[in-house]
Amino acid sequence: EVQLVESGGGSVQPGGSLRLSCAAAGFTFSSNTMGWFRQAPGKEREGVAVIIGNGRTLYADSVKGRFTISQDSAKNTLYLQMNSLTPDDTAMYYCAASFGWRLTLNRGSHAYWGQGTQVTVSS
Questions:
Q1: Which residues contact 67 (CB under 8 A, 6 or more apart)?
Q2: Please, are residues 121 and 86 in contact by the beta-carbon 8 Å criterion?
Q3: Is the dihedral of CA 71, 62, 106, 36 positive or negative?
Q4: Dihedral angle, C-alpha 83, 87, 90, 96, nearest 10 °
Q5: CA–CA separation, 9 vs 18, rounded Å?
Q6: DSSP readout, 82-119?
Q7: Backbone phi, psi, residue 75, to 5°
Q8: 19-77 confidence digits (pLDDT tens)
Q9: Largest CA-CA distance found in the chain, in angstroms, rounded
Q10: Alpha-carbon Rg of the chain, whole angstroms?
């Protein structure tokens, strides 16, 4: 059974940074895909960044140059380093996983989801 547990969310001022973590169980990073998605109130869930087993990544245009997705296979943990945060980044952030390599931000491509961690950016 695949289990994903996010942590690291919180409140931060504009321009600040946060690092999200997603601990994965029952899942092998090297042959699969993991990603981060977010959902703001009243909006649809959108893809933020994904990473496949060979390390290739894909980012949403809105976060390019500010966010970095990475994974530690030894710890079975996915990370999202978020810098230069703005109020538009306020959302619930979800970790997602799927079998195989799927370099896409389409949320329908992921079968497994965590419960989410809240990120709030405000002054």
A1: 48, 49, 59, 80, 81, 82, 83
A2: yes
A3: positive
A4: -40
A5: 7
A6: E-S--GGG-EEEEEEEEES------GGG--EE---EEE
A7: -100, -5
A8: 999 999 988 888 899 999 999 999 999 999 999 999 999 999 999 999 999 999 999 99
A9: 41
A10: 13
